[in-house]
Amino acid sequence: MEPRPVAASRCTLSRIMTLLDANLHGNIHGGVIMKLVDDAAGVVAARHSGGRAVTAAMDEMVFLVPVHIGDLVHAHAQVNWAGRTSMEIGVRVDAERWDEVGEPLHTSTAYLVYVGLDEDGSPRAVPPVLVDEDDALGQRRFREAEIRRTHRLARRDAILRSREG
Question: Which CATH number is 43's domain given?
Answer without folding.
Answer: 3.10.129.10
